[in-house]
Design a protein that fits this description.
341 residues, alpha/beta, 11-stranded mixed β-sheet, 5-stranded parallel β-sheet, binds threonylcarbamoyladenylate, binds magnesium ion
Length: 341
């Protein structure tokens, strides 16, 4: 249903003020961050936050991340800031790291989907920081995509999903990181709930303490298993096409694609491989460079949908460092289908 005219504005003093004014009056605004675009609302306004769930079609039990522009805002968001959180904030904020902390009183239930914890992060994108500062309130912001579709890394992606549903999108250009923030729980033993650009190794070094990896980063939830992060339950980041990850050499991949070749069958490969494959192919970054893969993955998934792909075979990303984040998103996009050739 289209109800409003959606404006797409470049980032400047005037558009920042406009975004802040809309946010203060309970409206939703698409904003750039260094990871992916966010669909922002005033985190202290329960009705505005409820609007995010409605517009995204987001399951009611999946909590949102609250974005702050300075440590002074943290006191409103979190009830307690343990020394480990101070260390990580000093090392990685502003930046692509979300910490799960005990929830503060100013945060309505709906932000945390009723949980007694809250995810909080200070983004490094100058436009995101400027909007939060101008609004003067913390902003709840999930990725600005319809629930289940690939996260948006350009303002155009946000428009594809929300044209006519939100009044304003700020266009800050393509996102540098390209995958969502690393989420670490600091309630109990430090545990990575979602891998991202900030790696487990970096977190461990900054904390001087062991960091656990949630076992569900690279496998599905098992029957009856309780998720540590509700987001783990849902099929995520998924293109419309059926995606399968393919472990093995390029030579074997090429041979397999020769057999699979049919209308609607596409490959998701690395830069430079497209012309050597017998099917239409889209690249997601450079084989040896996980950072480039993170930056390009979601746009590549959207492009496959635009081209009408119904079956996609993907070259395996690395699985360490930033590669773990890429692998985690691709596994979910593939509903955990992975084969070896
Ligand atoms: O990079 C990002 O984090 C982007 C940009 C916009 O900042 N935001 C984002 O939000 O990815 P979203 O809503 O798409 O993902 C939030 C994830 C979900 O997997 C959710 O389950 C988890 O964080 N999460 C949020 N609050 C949590 C909490 N209190 N406990 C456990 N997991 C939480
Ligand atoms: Mg999301």
């Amino acid at each position: 249903m289209r109800t409003v005219e959606t404006e797409l504005l470049g980032v400047n003093g005037v558009s920042i003020q406009k975004a802040a004014m809309l946010l203060r009056s309970g409206k939703l605004v698409g904003i750039p961050t260094e990871t992916v675009y966010g669909l922002a609302a005033n985190a202290c306004d329960a009705d505005a936050v409820a609007g995010i769930f409605k517009v995204k079609g987001r399951p009611q039990d999946n909590p949102l991340i609250v974005h702050i522009s300075g440590l002074d805002m943290l006191a409103d968001v979190a009830a307690l800031v343990p020394p480990a959180a101070r260390k990580l904030a000093a090392a990685f904020w502003p930046g692509p790291l979300t910490m799960v902390l005990p929830r503060g009183k100013a945060m309505p239930d709906v932000v945390s989907a009723g949980m007694d914890t809250v995810g909080v992060r200070m983004p490094s994108h100058p436009a995101a920081l400027a909007v939060i500062k101008a609004a003067g309130v913390p902003l709840a912001a999930p990725s600005a995509n319809l629930s289940g579709s690939p996260s948006p890394t350009t303002a155009e992606h946000v428009k594809e999903d929300f044209n006519g549903r939100i009044p304003l999108i700020l266009d800050g250009g393509p996102c540098q990181v390209g995958v969502e923030s690393t989420v670490i729980s600091l309630v109990g033993q430090p545990t990575v709930l979602r891998p991202g650009y900030i790696t487990p190794q970096q977190l461990q070094e900054a904390l001087g303490q062991e960091v656990k990896l949630s076992p569900t980063l690279t496998r599905p939830l098992q029957e009856g298993e309780k998720p540590t992060s509700p987001g783990m339950k849902y099929r995520h980041y998924a293109p419309k096409a059926e995606l399968t990850l393919v472990r093995g050499s390029f030579k074997n991949f090429e041979a397999m694609m020769e057999e699979k070749r049919a209308p609607g069958v596409f490959a998701l490969c690395f830069e430079g491989e497209q012309g050597r494959l017998p099917v239409p192919a889209i690249a997601y970054g450079i084989e040896e460079n996980a950072v480039s893969q993170a930056a390009e993955l979601y746009a590549a998934l959207r492009r496959l949908d635009d081209m009408g792909a119904h079956t996609v075979y993907a070259r395996m990303p690395q699985t360490q460092g930033v590669g773990l984040a890429v692998y985690n998103r691709m596994l979910r996009a593939a509903a955990f289908r992975e084969i070896e050739v």
